[in-house]
Amino acid sequence: MDDYLNVNRANWDERVAAHVASDQYAVDRLVTDRALLSGVVRFDLPRLGDIRGTKGVHLQCHIGTDTLSLTRLGATMTGLDFSGSSLAAARELAQRGGAEIRFVEADVYRALEVLEPGSFDLVYTGIGALCWLPYIARWASIVAGLLRPGGRLFIRDCHPMLFAIDDSFTDRLVVEYPYFERKEAVVFTDAGTYVETDITFANQATHEWNHGLGQIVTALLGSGLSLFALEEHDSVPWQALPGQMEIDEFGEWRLRDRPWRLAASFTLQALKL
Fold first, then answer.
1. What is the reported pTM?
2. Which domain holds residue 196?
3. Measured CA distances, 174 to 14, 165, 169, 237 (Å)
4. Secondary structure of 7-69 in HEC code, one letter for each residue
5. CA-to-CA distance for 241 and 244, rounded, in angstroms?
6. Which residues contact 252 (CB under 8 A, 6 or more apart)?
7. Which partner for 252 in 21, 108, 235, 236 could form a disulfide, CB atoms 3.0-4.6 Å apart?
8. Domain holding 259: CATH number?
9. Per-residue confidence of the chain (273 residues) as pLDDT tens digits?
10. Cβ burial 27-38 (10 Å sphere, 16+ → b, else e)
């Protein structure tokens, strides 16, 4: 099972150059404008509330654009990711953006080995994170272990319904992939990534898992967290279904035709009891 880590890490290491250069991640603008926030964090500002003075950890932080944004909102942030190349870019971004952020390299399932258990006010997870994890219950136990009593989990991620859709169709919604967590990974092969790029990857395979919304909630409850907010959205911050989506003025993509048919992402918040 651990082979999936090596396969996925190789793919994510190779994505870094394309992501740093892309308009979607807006690295140069985040450096130039030190008041700017990533689109992902900006979307959830009304839900995040005041995080000034909080100690937070961003799990699966990738190149750190959301981590930097949370720092700009006043949190003291640590970023964790399994990709050394991603963290090198994240450290450079933080330095150029004038922020002090600690970055730690580790698989998320090893977070309690490399971070301080029970010490965080905020555990943050952003778009496109959970699909890389085979076991949602194990992830929930890690989250609970990182949080202090009264600490908060904040996650916005892709809706499992979206991940069940076959994105090769441009004229209809076709459910092709598992909605519920299964032991077997869905293996994809893609020469590119979700941002526009001319780069063709050598490491094209990825191993991914879906987790039903009920499974996510149940896992968190079973780990001693108390759910207090759950909102489903009809949009995501990238063109998840090419040919079927249109972008709004805030950089969010939703179905062009009757967007109310598809839950595309969700925001969930929970407290450690």
1. 0.95
2. 3-272
3. 30, 5, 7, 21
4. HHHHHHHHHHHHHHHCCCCCHHHHHHCCCCCCHHHHHCHHHHCCCCCCEEEEECCCCCHHHHH
5. 6
6. 39, 43, 235, 236, 237
7. 235
8. 3.40.50.150
9. 569 999 999 988 988 888 888 888 888 999 999 999 999 999 999 999 999 999 999 999 999 999 999 999 999 999 999 999 999 999 999 999 999 999 999 999 999 999 999 999 999 999 999 999 999 999 999 999 999 999 999 999 999 999 999 999 999 999 999 999 999 999 988 765 676 667 777 778 899 999 999 999 999 999 999 999 999 999 999 999 999 999 999 999 999 999 999 999 999 999 999
10. beebbeeeebbb
Look at the chain and report how many structural domains it folds into: 1
- Please enumerate, as own/partner, the contacts of 106-111 that have beta carbons within 8 Å and a separation of 24 or more: 106/80, 106/82, 107/5, 107/82, 108/59, 108/60, 108/80, 108/82, 108/133, 108/139, 108/142, 109/133, 109/138, 109/139, 109/142, 111/57, 111/59, 111/80, 111/142, 111/145, 111/146
Q: How far is CA 22 from CA 44, 75, 129, 195, in A?
A: 22, 26, 19, 7
- DSSP letter, residue 109: G
Cβ-contact 195, 27 below 8 angstroms: no
Q: Length of the chain in residues, anyone? A: 273
